[in-house]
Amino acid sequence: MRVVLAEDLFLLRDGLVRLLEAYDFEIAAAVESGPELARALAELDPDVAVVDVRLPPTHTDEGLQCALRARRDRPGFPVLVLSQHVEQLYARELLADGSGGVGYLLKDRVFDAEQFVDAVRRVAAGGTAMDPQVIQQLLSRRAADDRPLARLTPREREVLELMAQGRSNAAIAGQLVVTERAIAKHTSNIFAKLDLEVSDDDNRRVLAVLAYLDQGR
Amino acid sequence: MTLPRRSARLFAMNTNTKSGPLATRARAVAVAAGRGFVLTLVSLPGAVLGFTLSLLSIALVPLGIGVLTTPWVLTRVRAFADWRRALAQRWGGIPIPSAYRPVPEGANPWSRTYAMLRDPATWRDLRWLQVDMTAGYVTALLPVVLFVYPLEGLAVAAGLWRPLSTWGGYWYGFVHVTDQSSAFGAGALALVLLTLTPLAPRMLATHFQLTRAVLGASQAELAERVRVLTETRRDAVDTSAAELRRIERDLHDGAQARLVAMGMDLGTIEMLMDKDPAQAKQLLSQARQSSVDALAELRELVRGIHPPVLAERGLGDAVRALALRLPLPTEVTVELDGRAEAPVESAAYFAVSEVLTNAVKHSGADRVWIDLHHAEGRLRVTVTDNGKGGAAIGAGSGLAGVERRLGTFDGVLAVSSPAGGPTMVTMEIPCALS
E strands of B137-231, at which residues? Predict the structure, then answer.
């Protein structure tokens, strides 16, 4: 799997290259600025891009804009955005086009190599990887005035949280140490309580949950 | 052939140099008379009307009606005064800076009335209106008289005395005109007066100087301005010093301590690696958690110093991002074409943040509206909630802090929060967008 990586801090870029190579990714290019990233995305046609939000020369949200542009040109192009801070505002912009293949994670998530690599693979395959912090913020905002959400059991809430992050039933089962069948049951309960349409497609399921959590604002 | 032409040219030059200043002076006198005439037409009725309405309106404030009319009347008086300032600049070359304290547009009539009446410039306007309808009127009238009266005298001598003295004679100055010889007397007086006519432009200048003397900022106001600046500067220095102390303490007790713990853990892990791999592994996860916590703390700290969205996207999106973090449904409207300077953006952001915190904590509201726009060289931010009202500057609300923060930028804060709500907080900062 060919990856284009954009990160301006040498230490982090170097670490990410080594980490991804250790998990058998091929680094097509590791660049350090917005213009270089745009060129690499256009010329190298990678399978997935891992991009820092803030990049030179402007040191504003150049990386994010680059990623959004790439997805406008090529709908569904897989992009995993990394940042020192996560904002619902940015998450919403990344999810706005409704197609999958989007990730938005705190840089800290790199510490857990297994999970990080899993997120990269999921995004490359057209799935979603949302940072737990984004999901928690969404949930805490919705919780204040949302009745259906209040009807969920604590366990169901836990499952919902992991589901919104983009995890598959198998991954959720693994994390909560229960069978996949149990998770499937929780999932259908959650969809029934929130009055959402059940879908077998993992990614469509995630997007439905995210849309539900983000609605009305 | 060449000689006459040259002399002709010389002659032309001569007339130019001789009649040039005279023509210019005559024109200056005529222009001064014309301007004086316009001023006499405007100053007396304008000043009398403005003064009467202001007095009436202010007198009616205790009855309540005045609260509605005063801002309207005083705004027009200010426009009138500003127009006269502009005339003084354009016609007299005398700059008179206009220095009214900003009045928040969206505030309720009562706080606008109060703000305007508290402004010394309002009382200065009222003093000026009285001067303008008396001395101002006379100094504007004099250039007209100096121009018209001598011409009238000459016209009388030339024959105008006949129709004028039909009914028992006509007085020109102290000359009683009844026949041609006394008319010549009037003409002689007119010639004497004509020597005073060149003073007309100077009289007009006197009018504008008088305007400046009354309408310009006084020494006391400058002293007041210095006092305010000193105060806001001290506040700014105090605030930033306190901020630095808080940051230092947070770093010392937080991230720094966690990094020390991490370093110790790593040392222990190195030692345990061979002896007790199981415990080493446990310590490793502990060290990782420490690094995660340290990062989370640093992230919060950075957000408190300068929020990353503000740096990346500017004020509009930073406030949108802030609204998304609120537990209340919030509507944000932004009309900014450009970015303000970084310190202004930062001050506005933290002011909004504080006002929102207040709304969430005290108002009991279930909806908030935020409006940001830039007009007439000011950034205006309005935060409205549908809560129970009763918010006030001071009373431990944190709004006093916001007012101090904005004061550094000559910004103002107005709170309208009747019991029962809604609460509307308006903030204005003079600034330019780029």
Answer: 170-172, 175-177
